TrEMBL record:
InterPro entries: HIT-like, HIT-like_sf, HIT_Hint. This is HIT domain-containing protein. Gene3D superfamilies: HIT-like. Residues 3-105 form the HIT domain. It holds the Pfam family HIT. It comes from the Bacteria. Transmembrane segments: none annotated. SUPFAM superfamilies: HIT-like. It comes from Vreelandella janggokensis.
Amino acid sequence: MTTFALDERLAKDTLLLSDLPLCRALLMLDARYPWVVLVPRRAALSEVFELTTDDQQQLWREAGQLGQMMKTAFNGDKLNIATLGNVVSQLHVHVVIRHHDDEAWPAPVWGYGRAEPYTPNKQQTMQARLSALIETLDLR
């Protein structure tokens, strides 16, 4: 049996926030957007349909609740939840808060411009805000 391991590129582009019942929640290192990546802690998956039915429901529960909380907390105009996997094939879900005045609007954030690194202070603040939101989720 293969064990869960985070793809090297995801590990390089993110920071750990928390482990949810199914997913590892990661902060995307791009200060332009409130952006979390959820990675189901299951080995060798690239597609949602490869999850069990229960895990699929849990994935959307985690993404939906987190996205709703983030949209409120960051006063978002739109919530983007997406699985792409064209560059990183490991199954992962992007949860991104969008604002009408963000640099990519209305285009997708993927492949638009360059990621803007967090300053150490802003990174700590964002990690703390998102970790606090995650603590309030009811993911049973």
